[in-house]
Amino acid sequence: MKAFEIVDRLEYEYINGNREATITGIATDNRRVNAGCAFICIKGARFDTHSVFKQIVEAGAALIVVSSEWAVENRGTISQAGDTMVIAVEDTRLAKACIAAAWYGHPADKLITVGITGSKGKTTTTHMLSDMISAAGFRVGTIGTNGAIIGDEIHELNNTTPDSEELQMYLAKMVEAGCKYAVIECSSQGLMQHRVSGFTFDYGIFTNIAEGDHVGPNEHASFEDYLYCKSILIRNSRVGVVNCDDAHVRELLEGVKTPVLFYGEDGNRHGYEPDYLAVNIGKTFEDREPGTTFSCVGALTGDYNINLPGEFNVGNAMAALIVADKLGIKDEAVKYALTHLHIKGRIDMIYRGPKLSVCVDFAHNGYSTKNLLIALREYRPRRLVCVFGADGNRAISRRTLMGEASAKFADLSIVTSGHNRWETFEQIFKDIKVGLMRGTGQYIVIPDRKEAIRYAIENAKEGDLITIIGLGHETYQEAMGVKMPYSDTEYTLSVLKEFGYI
Prior knowledge:
Layout: H1 3-6, E1 13-16, E2 25-27, E3 37-40, H2 53-58, E4 63-67, H3 68-73, H4 75-78, E5 85-89, H5 92-103, E6 112-117, H6 122-135, E7 140-144, E8 147-150, E9 153-155, H7 164-176, E10 181-185, H8 188-192, E11 201-206, H9 223-235, E12 237-243, H10 249-252, E13 260-264, E14 276-286, E15 289-298, E16 302-306, H11 312-326, H12 331-338, E17 348-352, E18 356-361, H13 366-376, E19 383-388, H14 396-409, E20 412-415, H15 425-436, E21 442-445, H16 449-458, E22 464-469, E23 476-479, E24 482-485, H17 488-498
Parallel strand pairs: 2-3, 3-4, 4-5, 6-10, 6-11, 7-10, 11-12, 12-13, 13-14, 18-22, 19-20, 19-22, 20-21
Antiparallel strand pairs: 1-5, 7-8, 8-9, 14-15, 15-16, 17-18, 23-24
Helix pairs in contact: 5-7, 6-11, 6-12, 13-14, 14-15, 16-17
C-alpha cells in the first residue's frame, strides 16, 4: 500500500515527502518504529511522541502523522524530514483509526456493524443480539468485555473497546471468517479516544447512563463529558436505537442529526414517544429457575421470555430485538435466543445445588450491584450473601454506593479486595464502610479475595445464594500496578470441589 492510499479517507494537510512510498505497517510507539512504517504521533498522558520526531525520521518511517498545532510551531523540524511524507491533522487519534481501517482494507464496509454503549447493559445486549443473529443461521463476530469472539475463537482483550488498530484487525478476521455482522461494545473511553472511528456504524444503541459512574481523575472530567462521549456513537451511526426512559436522553441527543428509533417502558416520559414499547412485564419461576416475560407493542408486536431474572434485562432485550427486527431476523430466532442465554460474568450461575448456589457477576458499582441483588432475590434464597470488592483509582462514589447497595439488598456482605490498583485495601474499605452504614445488612471484612470466597462457601447455610461480584469474566486481579492471573469462576469451582459440592 502506498502512503497516499493509506490516508485516502483522511482529512489532512500535506506538508512534504514522498507520497508514493510503500507502507510496511503502522506504529505509535517510538521504540517500535520499522523502516517503511506509517507512524502516528500521539500526545498521551505521560509522553508525547511528537517530541521524538527526529528519531522517528531516522528510524526510517515512510509516513509521519502530526497534529496541526504541533506542525505550526515546528515547520523547521519537519523540513528536515527528507523523503518521509509528513501530514498534519486536527486529531491524531482519529487519524490513527482511519489509517488502521485503510491498512486492513476497510473491513467494516463488508460487514453490518452494530455499536452498543451505555453505563450498563452493553455486554448483555451484545450477546443477546449476537445470539439472535446466530440462531437465524448467520455468522456474527463480537468485540467487547468478554473478548473478540469469532466463531469458536475467543481472543482476550485488555479493554472493553480495544485500540483502533486491534479493532480493525479483528474486523478483518471476521470478514475472513465469513461473518456478515459485527456487534461491538463501545465504552465511553473508547469513543473519546476514537477507537471505533474510521467507519460509520449501521446501528448505534444507547442503553442508559448513570451519574457518578466513570467520572474521576483517571476517566472523564465531568458527567457532561461522559454523556457527550456516549452520544458520539449515535452521531457516528446511520440509525440510532435509544432508550427514551433514560433521564438524560434529551441532553444526549442535543445536536444529533442521526435518525433515531426509541424504546422504553414508560411511554412519553421525557418528551419522546417510544416506537417500541415494553408492556406486561412479569416474572416466571420454573424448575427453581427464575425468568422474565414481557410484550412489545408499537412498530413490533410480540410476546417474549428471557431465561434470566431482573426487569433491567427487558431493556437490554428490547434494544437487541429492535435491531434484529431491522436486520430481518425472524421472530422464532429472537425468541429462541432469549430463552437460551448464558453470558459469562452476567448473572452467571456457576453452581446450583440443594444446599447452596453460587453466582459470578461483573457488577462493579452501586447501580449494577443493586439491580443484581434484586434480581437474585428471584431465585428465592433463604439468605443472600454478597462477596465484593471495589476498585481503586476510580470514582470514590462507586465504592460507597456498592457498600450501600450490598448492605440494603444482601443479608450478609463479605467485603474483600477487587482491583486495588495503586490504592491500599484500607483506603478503599474506608469509603465502602460509609455506604455499608446506610443499610441494615450484616458485614464482615476479609481483605484476601480467595479467603473471602472460601469463607463464604465453608460457612454456607442451607439455602444460601452466594454472589461474587466485581471481576466477573476477568482473568486477573490488579494490585500495585501488577496484574496477577486470577479467575473468580475457576477459583470458586476449585473450592466447591474441595468441599465436595461438585
